[in-house]
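Entry, Tuesday afternoon. Goal for today is a structural model of the target with manganese (II) ion bound, before we commit to ordering more compound. Inputs were pasted exactly as handed over by J.K., no edits. I checked the ligand SMILES twice against the vendor sheet because last time a stereocentre got dropped in transcription.
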Amino acid sequence: MKILHTSDWHLGHKFYGRQRHEEFAKFLQWLETIIELNGVELLIVAGDVFDSQAPPNKTLAMYYEFLSRISSSCCRHIIIVGGNHDSPALLNAPRELLHFLNIHVIGSAPRNISDELIVLHDGNNTPEAIILAVPYLRDKDIRLSAAGESLGDKQQKLIQGIHNHYSSLLALAHEKQKQIQKKIPLIATGHLFCQGGQTRQGDGIRELYVGTLLRIGLDCFSKDIDYLALGHLHLPQVLAKQNNRRYSGSPLAMSFAEAGEKKVVLLVDFSETMTVQEVPVPCFQQLHSISGDLEHILQKIHQLTATGDSILLEIHYRGETLIDDLQNQIASALKETKLEVLRISNKRRYNHILQQSSEVKTLDELSPRQVFQRCLEQNDIPLAQHQELILDFETSLDALSQSEHKEQRQ
Ligand SMILES: [Mn+2]
């Protein structure tokens, strides 16, 4: 059986307010080609299909068009699990309909855990794989909260809850295996931060409380699991040198910091001995970050123009002199080029005007968590209390966005 493992598409993601529809469309087209070229029979998307709880209609249309095309290809089955960015209600809404196309959607932990156990059948109706389709597990899915708990208690219970969830599901899978009486691949998904996982600044992971505080040990996943398809971290990686425990990473750069990094999808082949092959994702839109004084910035713009490529830019002015018309100077340098600047930060100017050392950002550029963090700092809340307050804040924020979204949809 040939499987394609991918995650963290973040469809609908914007760069400083600029939509990326074209890039996403190109990626999905490319993915379709890869699926057909390699005769992929199962597609696994391990969470964060969408970037936000309420993606634009154009993004939704792109997603459904892709699913309908794939379901009529060689790809017999599609498994989609929700990530922390996804709205479970949005992913789950068409699940009954998608089921007819052999598309299995698990938007959030279902009431009945056995719904996460999926047995896939080949064309002759013979079982060919068992999937533990586990989505991102929310605090409320797995932990019974009690009054007066310390932060340590909360985290410990969350970790324990995630371990229990996987082991209960594995017990059900073992029963199924006995019934099937034949060795078929056992595949599990997850959308979480594994111990030893690598991340980098600016990839959006640090802002999430599960990312900041919780690390799930690999011992959570039984040796009986033949392949673990993980999502959440944006760098593709093998865990603990085990070829069959992997993050596919995001296929597109989600920040300027990720620009130029290797992006892949994974082809897992169970035909004989299991093999995993990284398929590099082409770069559909070049990104470039320029940091320096005006001379350096203009020189770099000149160099990039000469390539003739269409490139999105992020510019950080770091010069000593105060330049009031920096924006105009850069705008005129970009005239009649294929370069587009999305953000110019002028640290020197802010420092001069506001006499403060930290870079001023607008609310657009800050996540709610960063705003909260600034409140903690401004109000001189002792550092020791930060983690606990942030966890409570994130939990409330998550609950709020869930209920807001529910109201919108009702
Ligand atoms: Mn995620």
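The chain has twelve helices and 17 strands.
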